[in-house]
Fold this sequence. Notes:
By secondary structure, the chain is of the alpha/beta class. Among the domains are: 34-185, Leucine Dehydrogenase, chain A, domain 1 (Rossmann fold, 3-Layer(aba) Sandwich); 194-355, NAD(P)-binding Rossmann-like Domain (Rossmann fold), CATH 3.40.50. The protein is built from 16 helices and 12 strands. The longest helix has 26 residues, at 417-442. The structure holds nicotinamide-adenine-dinucleotide. Nicotinamide-adenine-dinucleotide (NAD) is lined by residues 195, 230-236, 254-256, 293, 307-309, 329-331, 356, 359.
Amino acid sequence: MSHQPYSFFQSVERSFDKAANFTKWDKGILEQIKACNSIYSMRFPVKLDDGSIEVIEAYRVQHSQHKSPCKGGIRFSDEVNQDEVMALASLMTYKCAIVNVPFGGGKGGIKINPRNYSVYELEKITRRYTSELVKKNFIGPGIDVPAPDYGTGEREMAWIVDTYTSLKPGEIDAAGCVTGKPITQGGVRGRKEATGLGVFFGIREVCNMTDIMERQGLKPGIEGKTIVVQGLGNVGYHTAKFFREAGAKVVALAEYEGAIFNAEGLNEEEVFQHRKATGSILNFPGATNLEKNTDALELDCDILIPAALENVINKDNAPRVKAKIIGEAANGPCTPEADEEFARRNILCVPDMYLNAGGVTVSYFEWLKNLSHVRYGRMEKRFTENMNSHILGQIEELSGKEVSDKERKFIMHGPEEQDLVHSGLEETMITATREIMEIWKADPSIPDMRTAAYISAINKVATSYAELGIFP
Ligand code: NAD
């Protein structure tokens, strides 16, 4: 970021200001929303396996407490610095507000490259970080709830909940101090695919809006749409899967080593297995190799899904992008210059801040599960199945006809945890999409959907402050 004229946090502030111009909120309220409320910068020692002692640099930022707790991931990376954590924490405030998840934004970071440490060292660092957070009251189910981010996963979340619980004996809701936990430690089913599924639900809703589709020169609906996905990791894989299952054609997939194309559509699981077996996405049976992985971004298609890294679509290649819709599954894949180009050429960019909010939405469901101490579906599954069975029996008796076994299974089925998590996510993404579009349609001078999403966030956080009576 050093060659940029603005720091990461300043660039978030600039996007905020651009959107704030379209609102009528008091300047003081806007200043309060932008500010990072609490910044905890810490240093602690850790004894490494070779006996040496290293001082670790770490942060936790609570950007906003307009809702409690704060929420946001913990990142393990060499690049971690206070400005980055502040920027990411503020983006979490806006992301949660847009998808109506009642949390303030937070973010944590430890400045280490996890690959340079043994598992035992990582465990010590994670546990020590957690106890530093406990000491300063910077973690807890009602205070601040971390989650995985770059370089962390279920394993680290399990260490955090274990450390927290041991320091807070008898705290009945302790499991809700962190999300993204393994199922056995209080995690929720359906989290792994949550971000990709959220991307799918968000884009599907956009594609169901006839006026928007007309403007993009496309037919409504997902079926038959051509899709290009960059990045076959967690988010890209699941996004491709849900689009294919809904009848779209994933015509190209791009990875580090190159990209592949097949006009008839690719199956992400087969490609994934091929890559696992051969070490490369290239030479997949029936597909054409594309020399450069970035060539995929410039293919003729209806929907382009960058699901790998930031800044991949920029002033250099944006003029060659031919997709009608871009779905930002990754964080920050399009630069501001690309945004301007797309606004000029009527390419609809569906912004990351809300489109990839599936992870935090399902984290919210995990937290609710922890506070309620019961698995989703446990209370109603059997009741629903008995009721459905009874209703079906009555219909069959009265009509003298029987449904097929497949239909019977579908109708009878009572909700499991994963079904409820998926449907809660579907509801969340549909509502957020509609809210943003309403704002955009109401004012034609709003340049793009990203600005409309920011306005949605600002309105919600400002309303919350105003209703708290802080700014009478
Ligand atoms: P991941 O590491 O599982 O997958 C990323 C994939 O992109 C990898 O397979 C990698 O090989 C590939 N890749 C890297 N550089 C590439 C390039 N130049 N061209 C093509 N492919 C390339 O990560 P992920 O969890 O899927 O996250 C992807 C993006 O989505 C990130 O920007 C992340 O911040 C964002 N995101 C993730 C989540 C989540 O829940 N995992 C939530 C919100 C946002």
